[in-house]
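Researcher: Here's a chain I'd like modeled. Treat it as a single chain, no partners, no ligands.
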Amino acid sequence: MRVPDWWSIEVMDVEDGTVHTATGWRDAYGQVLTESLITNGASSWRWFEHSWGVVLEVSFAEEESWDAWLDLPGTQATLDAVPDPVRGLLVHRGHGGASGSYVPRRPGSAPRADSVALPEPLVP
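Model: Modeled as a single isolated chain. Structure tokens:
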């Protein structure tokens, strides 16, 4: 049995002060997308709401099914209707959303050969 692949559609809010939000887009087009996913063989999907917008995670058993669904005129029309289709839309493989703020790792101490005790020489 094959593990299904996940893809994400991330829609960001517009920052120019308009009333168009990613949540409003989801409210307007979510049912159409869900119906389309059901009729085109999606094995699972779920919506996530973030402070910056919304994410639709979709799972299909085959990559070709994802490609076919994404190429549907109805799917393309809903993606064209996002608040900012140029800078506010990400479509990619894998789970979406933020993984938290970036915190760089602190460099650890460099490995050093002189920090390990050497075995004592054998004395006959």
